[in-house]
Amino acid sequence: MDDTTIKRLNQINQEFYRITLDEFDQSRGRPWPGWQRLLSYLSAPLSVLDVGCGNGRLGVFLAQRLNTIQYCGLDSSPELLERARTALAGINARLEQRDIIEHPPDEGEYDLVVLFGVLHHIPGCQRRRDLMGRLARRVKSGGVLAFAAWRFYDYERFRDRVMPWPADFDVEPHDYLLDWRRGTQALRYCHFVDDAEHSELIAATGLSEIITYRADGRTNDINRYSILRREPE
Asked: Taking Cα atoms as reference points, which of 118, 106, 124 lies closest to residue 147?
């Protein structure tokens, strides 16, 4: 995928989060059930890099259960980061406005690096692989990288939301334009990560796979999670 298309897709999603801010924030008020299984592989004190942190709900979830965390959240939306600052008050947290498509994380090491609810917004097969490799390098020895792929195209209710691409968009297979049905009219770019690509993304990290499972949503399987570990040196 060429850089021009990547920038255009990224702009679609930045505009989506700007105009759906309140509705999206309300739809992300609770922890995902799939996060609970992650706790088995964590211990306090814990340093966390939450890539695409949104309103900071993962940081709240971890702080309530592990008590002692150092949390770093990255997101491109200044409005969602303001919501995160409010939610994370009293927690040792640092928040940074950062477009991870243009500027992936490039410093620091953490006990836990997380990419939840983000992968479907990363345009380009190679860029997704590169991002996973970069995130793996942010994991401490013995630490964990966890990511989830939204399996929206497995469900008819989301396939019904697919809109046609404008003729001048040169997208890749499994790239879709979805409409938003929570009041405000909006479109977002979403890529469907199938089983084969999911395995390729795991391989791109060079880390050891601990577990892969599905959870969340009405049927408790809408997200496919993988928890990976950097083996102690």
From this structure: 118
pLDDT in tens, 98-126: 999 999 999 999 999 999 999 999 999 99
Question: Any idea which residue has 């942190």 for tokens?
Answer: 53
- Give residue-wise pLDDT tens across range 166-186: 999 999 999 999 999 887 889
Coil/strand/helix, residue 26: helix
What fold is seen in the domain 3-229?
Answer: Rossmann fold (3.40.50)
- List the beta strands (DSSP E) in 11-77: 46-51, 69-75
What does the radius of gyration of the chain's CA atoms come to, in whole angstroms? 17
Sheet bearing 69-75, strands edge to edge: 93-97, 69-75, 46-51, 110-115, 139-150, 223-229, 208-215
Q: Tell me the backbone φ, ψ of residue 94, rounded to 5 degrees.
A: -125, 130
Burial-class residue 135 by CB neighbours within 10 Å (0-12, 13-18, 19+): buried
Sole residue written with tokens 């008020």? 29
* Three-class DSSP category at 12: helix
Q: Assess contact for 132 and 203: CB atoms under 8 A.
A: no
The amino acid at 122: I
